[in-house]
Design brief:
porphyrin biosynthesis, globular, five-stranded mixed β-sheet, Double Stranded RNA Binding Domain, binds the ligand NCc1[nH]cc(CCC(=O)O)c1CC(=O)O, transferase, D-Maltodextrin-Binding Protein, domain 2, HemC, alpha/beta, hydroxymethylbilane synthase activity, Porphobilinogen_deaminase_C, 8 helices
Length: 296
Amino acid sequence: MKRKIRVGSRDSKLAVMQTELVMEAIRRADPEIELELITLKTTGDMILDKTLDKIGGKGLFVKELDQALMDGRIDLAVHSLKDMPMEINEELPIVACAKRGDPRDVLVLPKGAKPGSYYLVKVGSSSPRRQLQLQILYPIIHLESVRGNIMTRLKKLDDGEYSALVLAAAGLQRVGLQERIYKYFSTDEIIPAAGQGILAVQARKDLDVAFLEQVNDPTTALAATAERSFVRTLDGGCSSPIAAHAVIQDSELRLKGLYYREETQEYRIGETSGPAERAEKLGEELALRLKEELGG
Ligand SMILES: NCc1[nH]cc(CCC(=O)O)c1CC(=O)O
C-alpha cells in the first residue's frame, strides 16, 4: 500500500515553490510515496499593515501550520527556516534541513531602471537586520518599511513606491525572478538572517521520517544550529537587528554574527570557528562574547 504524506505550506507563491522543491526531493528519495500539498493562510500573511515586531513576531507565520500538524490534518510542514521562531514546540521538531540555497541579500531596482542609476532614497526593507547594515554600508541611505510577500513588494517597487528593495536572493531565485537581481551583497557586506536560504521540514515527533534522510543535508543542519544558537542565546526577537551566518568547510565551522544592543544603540560584529559538531556551543560562545563586549 502506497504511503501518503500530506505536506503543509503557507499559501504565498514563494512558500508553495519552496514546498514543491522539498516534495521533489522526497519523490527523488522515494518514488513510492504519494504526496499531497495542502496550503494554509497564516496570521502573518494576513496582517500586512504592520511590521512584524508590532504583530508578535515570527510565530505568526507558523501557528496555523503547527496546529494542522498537531491535529493530524498535515504530516509535514515546510518553512523558510529564517521565518521560524527560535523556540520550537518539542512535539513538532525540525526533522530535516534541505541543502542551503543562496544565503545572500540583494538589491532590486524598478523594472526598466537604467543600470547604475539607483538612488538611496526610499529603499524598501522592513528588516531591522538589513536596515542597520545598509546604514553602515550607505550612511546617507533613506529606508522605508515594506510588508507583503515578494510579489506584492515587487509590484510596489515597480509602481514607483520605492527606488529600490533589499530582498533575499533565495526568494527571488525560487520564484523564478532572479533576473530582477541588480546587485548581490556579500555575506560580509550584509550578514544574512539566521537560517536564510534554508528550507526546514517540521513533523510530529512520532512520525517515521526515514524517507527524509536523503532530503536532509547534515552540513546545512549544523550551520542552522550554530546560527540559531547565536540568536537564541541573545534572545533575539524579530525586532532586533541580529544576524548570523555559518560556513562549514572540511568539518570546520566558521560563524559570523552581529549583535545590536538596543539600550546603548551599539553593535558588534564578531567571528568564531571550531569543529562543526560544536555548532550549538560555537553559536552560544560567540553570542556571549559579543554581549559581554557591549556590556549587556
Ligand atoms: N519573510 C520573508 C522571507 N522568508 C524567507 C525568504 C527568502 C527565502 C529564504 O531566506 O529561505 C523571504 C523573502 C526575503 O527575505 O526577501
